[in-house]
């Protein structure tokens, strides 16, 4: 009798796990509105960058900027933390 209930419960939890895992650790939705654009621009300007363009790519912010004559691509997460800076050749 218990077997009839355990197997469906195990299957249901296995099927539901990926749905919950995709939201685990996310800090909310990412959108590129004027407030977020201004925050990123201000943050990078304080670090000496001249920001040319900011866009949203794969749920992350991507800024194109210049500093000391060099061009950079700066990737930020949903919380505006810099994840990676690449020099653009």
Automatic annotation (TrEMBL):
Entries under InterPro entries matching the protein: PepSY
Print the keywords alphabetically: Signal
Q: Residues of the signal sequence? A: 1-21
Q: Which residues form the PepSY domain?
A: 9-78
Q: Which Pfam families match?
A: PepSY_2
Which protein are we looking at?
Peptidase propeptide and YPEB domain-containing protein
